[in-house]
């Protein structure tokens, strides 16, 4: 490496900082940094990617919708008041009306002969007559279909077809005098609003709108004596989580930032030192973001969440350089080479993320590896110049000596205590039946009330055991045939299964042709002689061509059909709701069908967490091997083995402590290990390179304290994902801090 | 002249009476209904009028109402039945095969209530008013799904329901005469 004059360090350091910041600002202003927020896009499967896209397309129109339900004696009045208020704003979603049965009769009646129920088809296939069934239906006092269909289709087969399709489509919602009603014990009046959140740029503004709706509902609830209001919908969840995150960021972030500033000011008694720490952080983040922006088209939000660990690692470099005397050339040289070695080994460890199948984790590796280079540049070039005339070195020495004395005195106790806790941790993990729980529900910060409402309201719309399937084919006919075959296969497993599918309304062309052939045969057998006698005219079948999708999409049923059918990337895609079928049975049947998927957001998100957890465990193994190999080459085998042992034990203690506090572990506990390992690598390298010097011990103490304040404070969060991270860091850091000096001999 | 004015006034008063809403109790009183003892069984004769047919379709059969079970069985001209048991409504074809009707709970409640003249239950889904016939009550559905199927229903009888008239959305009339087993 060519030798750089010390005079050039500061100008070079500042120049690279200014260039990095300017370039990043340019990229941000130009909108070249795209954030990807869909967590499901992390799953490494093309099919899931397509299903995810299709699901978004189907549910895009509902994503800003909320459901409000009113019950109690004043429910109707309160419903009307809210409906008027939001009607004036244009926020009401859809009309509370059903398509006229007469219109449906005219629409489908025109295709008599082509449309048969499964039951009718079976009867005809067995050679049974449909004439008696038609007469029975005609005579039924309580059948609303026969008067409408009989003049158009005297066989009433079309009436049965429509009746069957409507029965599958039925939900708990009915309409009374223009109001959507659920006639349960409480009699709930239901309103659906579409909040104008699509064009709003900031999340804060969107959250404020949702909370204004919540407040207006609370006001109405308070104004009526006998009224209860429940509400649900994605915007409420998002707003609740946003408010929670905002609140926590303010006080947790505020408190930890305050303590960091306090630590730096108390230990260094210098504003310049504080500035030096901030410059290092800024440079590190700029380098990381620049690398991501230049290497990737879009950056996943989860990458940024993981990348927060950079702050904890980068601050270490500042502390090490700042606590070492620049005029003690040997010590200063040792620290500089330890910082470089720490950077190389940590960056190499993070580069192991690139071997994992998830792009988000690859991005984390890139971000931190480049971020560390930024921190290193700042630590080597900017900080020394900023603190050249620093006068408080003797105070730092005293502090360092004090820390060394405490660590020295507690070496034996630490060794025994950590080993005992380690053994207890192993026992705890062994006796725990479910160590890991990847259920996404555990990570949801929404209130219980909102979750209960969501569950109940979804049942009104989709039934109690509704499962959603997405099917896709390049050809519409193939898609309809697949739907028919799938529903038939499910009914073979359980006859009570019902399905809401487009093929309920639009049978495949081949099925329509078969239906016509069966009915014509029945007519030729004389099945409908009585009926044609009643009408005084012969019954005509198949006078038009078969029913088509275009006809249905242009009809009054168009909205219903388009809510379950779309064209995407050259595919015809349909959404099918299955009721009264077990997930397991559906999955078994789906094994026999290609280009089909059962969609369950919660299950898929849990799957993402599971995949990421597995990836992190693989990373952990690789990173540990890389780290030990570097220690082995740079120092000796014994040091590597000792460091590896204490590191593993501390990780285990961090995890088992979290397990004890949380009941089970999740992805975010493992994420905390990423930071823990990175910090531990630095701690071990600095001790091995510099020995138990006062400056090293002090820098590591400050680093551990700042990590506890920045990340340990997260344990106080209400959000499970965040406090899981906090617990592991807090416990792990304390353990690492005490065991790290054990890899070197006591100071003479 | 005075007689003509008096007649018009009387007619207007009568119209007012016909349009007046009735409570369940008033409707029950008007028909002097006595709560039937269960099981209630009997026979029925039904005439179903279609505008496209010159003659009404005539059918007859039997019914039986119990606390948790109902059977409405057509015997002529084609055997078929509507059966409610185990909280499920079934249609039964001429071969005796039962098919469950999804969401059939509301329909069975309606049939139960019509046969027994339970106006308190009917009042939840119908607006009640007096019919021009003294021993009949006119009922108009007040919910959309029901009004798609029924335009109006008339219940007639004295002491017990003996005639039900159903008018569908096309105003086709179905007249059902009931004869309970006890009054046979």
Question: What report would you give on this structure?
Answer:
The complex is a heterodimer of chains A (748) and B (184). Chain A has 748 residues and is α+β, with helices and mostly antiparallel strands. Helix content of chain A is 66%, strand content 8%. In chain A, the strands form three sheets. In chain A, strands 3-4-5-2-6 form a five-stranded antiparallel β-sheet, sandwiched between helices. In chain A, helix 9 (203-223) packs across helix 10 (234-268), helix 10 (234-268) packs across helix 11 and helix 14 (329-351) runs antiparallel to helix 28 (667-690). Chain A is elongated. The mean pLDDT of chain A is 84. Chain B is of the alpha+beta class. In chain B, 26% of the residues lie in helices and 41% in strands. Chain B contains five helices and eleven strands; from the N terminus they run ααββββββααββαβββ. Chain B has an eleven-stranded antiparallel β-sheet with strand order 6-5-4-3-2-1-11-10-9-8-7. The longest helix of chain B has 18 residues, at 2-19.
Distance between the termini of chain B: 51 Å
List unreliable stretches of 5+ residues of chain B. 1-18
The number of helical segments of chain B is 5
Which runs of chain A of at least 5 residues are low in confidence (pLDDT < 50)? none
Q: Judging from the principal axes of the Cα atoms, what is the shape of chain B?
A: globular
**Overall helicity of chain A:** 55-70%
Biggest interface between protein chains, with counts per chain? A-B, 33 and 41 residues
**Major sheet size, sense and barrel closure of chain A:** 5 strands, antiparallel
Distance between the termini of chain A: 35 Å
The total count of strands of chain B amounts to 11
Q: Strand portion of chain A, in percent?
A: 5-15%
Number of helices of chain A: 30
- As laid out across the biggest beta sheet of chain B, the strand order is 6-5-4-3-2-1-11-10-9-8-7
């Amino acid at each position: 490496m060519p030798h750089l004059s010390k005079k050039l360090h500061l100008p070079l350091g500042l120049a690279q900082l200014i260039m990095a910041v300017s370039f990043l600002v340019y990229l941000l202003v130009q909108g070249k940094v795209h954030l990807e927020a869909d967590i499901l896009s992390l799953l490494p499967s093309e099919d899931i990617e397509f299903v995810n896209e299709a699901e978004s397309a189907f549910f895009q129109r509902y994503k800003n919708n909320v459901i409000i339900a009113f019950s109690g004696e004043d429910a109707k009045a309160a419903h009307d008041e809210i409906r008027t208020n939001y009607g004036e704003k244009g926020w009401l979603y859809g009309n509370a009306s059903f398509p006229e049965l007469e219109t449906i009769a005219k629409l489908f009646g025109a295709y008599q002969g082509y449309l048969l129920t499964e039951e009718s088809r079976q009867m005809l296939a067995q050679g049974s007559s449909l004439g008696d069934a038609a007469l029975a239906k005609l005579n039924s006092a309580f059948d609303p279909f026969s008067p409408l269909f009989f003049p158009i289709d005297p066989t009433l087969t079309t009436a049965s077809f429509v009746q069957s399709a409507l029965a599958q489509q039925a939900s708990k919602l009915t309409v009374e005098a223009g109001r959507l009603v659920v006639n349960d014990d409480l009699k709930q009046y239901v309103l659906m609003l579409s909040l104008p959140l699509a064009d709003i740029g900031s999340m804060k503004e969107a959250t404020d709108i949702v909370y204004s709706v919540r407040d207006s509902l609370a006001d109405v609830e308070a104004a009526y004596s006998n009224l209860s209001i429940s509400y649900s919908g994605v915007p409420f969840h998002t707003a609740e989580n946003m408010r929670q995150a905002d609140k926590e960021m303010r006080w947790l972030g505020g408190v930890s930032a305050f303590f960091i500033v306090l630590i730096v000011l108390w230990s260094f008694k210098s504003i310049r030192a504080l500035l030096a720490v901030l410059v290092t952080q800024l440079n590190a983040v700029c380098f990381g973001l620049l690398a991501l922006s230049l290497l990737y088209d879009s950056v996943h939000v989860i990458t940024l969440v993981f990348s927060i660990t950079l702050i904890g690692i980068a601050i270490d470099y500042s502390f090490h350089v700042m606590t070492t005397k620049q005029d003690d050339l040997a010590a200063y040289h040792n620290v500089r080479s330890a910082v470089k070695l720490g950077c190389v080994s940590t960056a190499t460890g993070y580069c192991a993320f690139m071997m994992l199948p998830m792009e988000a984790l690859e991005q984390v590796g890139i971000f931190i590896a480049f971020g560390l280079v930024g921190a290193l540049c700042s630590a080597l070039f900017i900080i020394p110049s900023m603190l050249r005339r620093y006068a408080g070195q003797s105070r730092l020495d005293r502090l360092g000596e004090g820390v060394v004395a405490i660590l020295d005195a507690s070496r034996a106790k630490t060794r025994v205590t950590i080993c005992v806790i380690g053994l207890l941790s192993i026992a705890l993990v062994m006796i725990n039946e479910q160590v890991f729980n990847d259920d996404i529900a555990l990570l949801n910060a929404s209130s219980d009330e909102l979750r209960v409402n969501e569950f109940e309201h979804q049942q009104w719309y989709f039934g109690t055991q509704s499962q959603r399937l997405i099917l896709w084919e390049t050809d519409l006919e193939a898609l309809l045939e697949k739907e028919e075959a799938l529903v038939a296969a499910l009914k073979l497993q359980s006859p009570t299964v019902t399905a809401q599918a487009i093929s309920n309304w639009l049978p495949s062309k081949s099925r329509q042709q078969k239906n016509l052939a069966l009915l014509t045969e029945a007519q030729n057998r004389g099945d409908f002689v009585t009926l044609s006698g009643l009408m005084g005219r012969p019954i005509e079948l198949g006078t038009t061509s078969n029913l088509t999708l275009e006809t249905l999409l242009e009809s009054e049923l168009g909205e219903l059909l388009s809510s379950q059918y779309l064209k995407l990337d050259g595919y015809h895609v349909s959404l099918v709701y299955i009721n009264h079928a077990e997930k397991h049975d559906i999955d078994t049947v789906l094994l026999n069908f290609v280009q089909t998927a059962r969609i369950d957001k919660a299950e898929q998100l849990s799957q993402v967490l599971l995949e990421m957890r597995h990836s992190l465990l693989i990373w952990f193994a690789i990173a540990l091997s890389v780290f030990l190999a570097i220690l082995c080459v740079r120092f000796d085998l014994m040091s590597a083995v000792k460091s590896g042992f204490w590191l593993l034990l501390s990780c285990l203690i961090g995890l088992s402590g979290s397990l004890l506090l949380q009941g089970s572990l999740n992805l975010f506990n493992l994420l905390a290990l990423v930071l823990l390992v990175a910090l531990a690598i630095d701690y071990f390298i600095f001790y091995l390179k510099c020995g138990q010097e006062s400056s090293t011990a002090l820098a590591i103490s400050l680093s551990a304290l700042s990590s506890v304040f920045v990340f340990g404070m997260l344990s106080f969060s209400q959000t499970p994902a965040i406090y899981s991270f906090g617990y592991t860091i807090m416990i792990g850091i304390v353990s690492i801090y005490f065991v790290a000096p054990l890899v070197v001999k006591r100071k003479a | 002249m005075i007689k003509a004015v008096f007649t018009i006034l009387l007619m207007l008063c009568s119209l007012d009476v016909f349009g007046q809403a009735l409570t369940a109790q008033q409707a029950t009183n008007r028909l002097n209904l006595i709560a039937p003892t269960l099981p209630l069984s009997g026979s029925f004769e039904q005439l179903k009028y279609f505008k496209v047919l010159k003659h009404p379709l005539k059918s007859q059969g039997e019914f039986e109402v119990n606390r948790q079970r109902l059977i409405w069985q057509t015997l002529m001209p084609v055997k078929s039945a509507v059966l409610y048991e185990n909280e499920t409504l079934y249609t039964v074809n001429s071969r005796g095969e039962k098919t469950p009707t999804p969401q059939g709970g509301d329909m069975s409640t309606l049939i139960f209530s019509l046969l027994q003249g339970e106006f308190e239950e009917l009042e939840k889904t119908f607006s009640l008013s007096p019919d021009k016939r003294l021993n009949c009550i006119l009922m108009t559905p007040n919910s959309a799904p029901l009004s798609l199927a029924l335009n109006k229903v008339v219940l007639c009888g004295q002491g017990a329901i003996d005639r039900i008239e159903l008018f569908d959305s096309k105003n086709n009339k179905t007249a059902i005469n009931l004869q309970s087993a006890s009054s046979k």
